[in-house]
Amino acid sequence: MTNAEFIAVLGSKIARLRKMRGLNQFEFADVCGKMVNTVSKIERGIGDPRLSTLLDIAKALDIPLTELLDSTKFANTQPGAGSDLDAQIIELLERCDDDAKSAVLTLLKVLTR
User: Is the pTM of the predicted complex or chain greater than 0.90?
Assistant: First the structure.
């Protein structure tokens, strides 16, 4: 993955996570302590965000920076790699403890019979 591709996918992931939390760009920028223009550029994959900005974004999303930057979690955000709904489900499952994951698995088995 090139740097430009990484930045584009990272921006897409940030936008998806922001939307999952029910925040618009103005609200999210306020929580991050950044200008709306900065958030917009990052989400569109324009420019090269500073580490300090990414730290602020990760904190606002309540996730570790390592999770935000984990390229293995980008697979579902790339075009053709699955729907946004799939990505949202995976993102939420990653936050669940083992008991919750077991309950979800049981439910999915019932739903797919």
Answer: no
